[in-house]
Automatic annotation (TrEMBL):
<dbReference type="Pfam" id="PF06127">
    <property type="entry name" value="Mpo1-like"/>
</dbReference>
<keyword id="KW-0472">Membrane</keyword>
<keyword id="KW-1133">Transmembrane helix</keyword>
<dbReference type="InterPro" id="IPR009305">
    <property type="entry name" value="Mpo1-like"/>
</dbReference>
<feature type="transmembrane region" description="Helical">
    <location>
        <begin position="27"/>
        <end position="45"/>
    </location>
</feature>
<protein>
    <recommendedName>
        <fullName>DUF962 domain-containing protein</fullName>
    </recommendedName>
</protein>
<feature type="transmembrane region" description="Helical">
    <location>
        <begin position="51"/>
        <end position="70"/>
    </location>
</feature>
<feature type="region of interest" description="Disordered">
    <location>
        <begin position="118"/>
        <end position="138"/>
    </location>
</feature>
<keyword id="KW-0812">Transmembrane</keyword>
Length: 138
């Protein structure tokens, strides 16, 4: 069985985060992932094939709605299915534990559309001070 080369690509996770900047898209992903895990658990526990079949439909259905209707981009699942699945689980775990925003900051990626993070060189101060207009020379 061939493995997904994106599983070991260090750029995959930041690219994945970049494609999931909209909070609604992330919420759909997390809800879909957690629902799929629950359906897998129920399906295995009860030996119910319907829950097992529903798991990927619910999980990917919610995620793809987020991509096509909210974020308006192409799901990474189409290019890298295993790495995308692993990233979905990772994102859900970080979201549930309240650490997802920190992950976005770690990579310098705005965690919602329309935000721009201005990067400074490491030697520059993190914040710039700007004098009010009335104190500037004319």
């Amino acid at each position: 069985m061939a493995t997904d080369p994106n599983l070991t690509d260090p750029n995959f996770w930041p690219e994945y985060l970049e494609q999931h900047r909209d909070p609604t898209n992330r919420a759909l992903h997390v809800a879909g992932t957690l629902s799929a895990v629950a359906l897998l658990g129920v399906g295995l526990a009860r030996r119910d094939w319907r829950a097992l079949v529903a798991a990927p439909l619910v999980g990917y259905g919610a995620a793809w709605l987020g991509h096509f209707l909210v974020e308006r981009n192409r799901p990474k699942t189409l290019d890298a299915p295993l790495a995308s699945l692993a990233a979905d689980v990772r994102m859900a775990g970080l979201a549930v534990t309240g650490q997802l925003a920190r992950e976005y900051r770690r990579y310098g990626i705005p965690d919602r559309p329309g935000l721009v993070i201005r990067r400074h060189p490491p030697s520059a101060p993190a914040l710039e001070r700007v004098a009010p207009d009335e104190t500037r020379g004319s």
